[in-house]
Amino acid sequence: MKVGDDVVVGLEYVITDREGREIDRTPSGQPWFYLHGAKACPPGLERALSGKEPGARLEVELPPEETYGRRNEDAVFRLDRAVLPSDQEPKVGMVVSMMSKKGETELRVVDVTSEAIVVDANHPLADQTLRFSVHVVDVRRATAEEILSGEAEA
């Protein structure tokens, strides 16, 4: 079976920046599974994987527009500390989840004052050209439940 829409793909990968510094990798023997076509994978990588079969290996370098996008300074904003639960003390670097019109959004805390917290909704890898070293280890047809939820089961 080939990688295409409504197919679950199991990948082993290593992600590095342009200088070759490792950013992320799958643990040995523990592939990452995603539903192809459900926007769970960076768009440029998803296109590169289309049509591949189990056993395929590829190296691809992708600009920000094909991975996690460009930084948007409007995505950095202040929130009143009252929006956090009273038992949660905000700290720079922590991630807080908030509901928005588009669903759950993760925000990184970048500054804390006595009245407010400043959060950044940009993806941590925004603005970076990334290199993906990928091994396709499994390809199978998605179940109806996976297609409905948009998420793959391992």
Helix-strand blueprint:
Elements: E1 7-17, E2 22-25, E3 32-35, H1 43-49, E4 57-62, E5 76-80, E6 95-100, E7 103-112, E8 116-120, E9 130-141, H2 144-149
Antiparallel strand pairs: 1-2, 1-3, 1-9, 4-9, 5-8, 6-7, 7-8
Helix content: under 10%
**Count of separate DSSP helical elements:** 2
Mean pLDDT: 93
Order of helices and strands: EEEHEEEEEEH
Query: What is the 3D shape?
Result: globular
Helix-strand makeup class? mainly beta
- Model regions low in confidence, pLDDT < 50 over at least 5 residues: none
N-to-C terminal Cα separation, in Å?
Answer: 17 Å
DSSP strand tally:
9
Q: Radius of gyration from the CA trace? A: 18 Å
Please give the largest β-sheet.
Answer: 5 strands, antiparallel
The amount of beta strand, in percent, is 35-45%
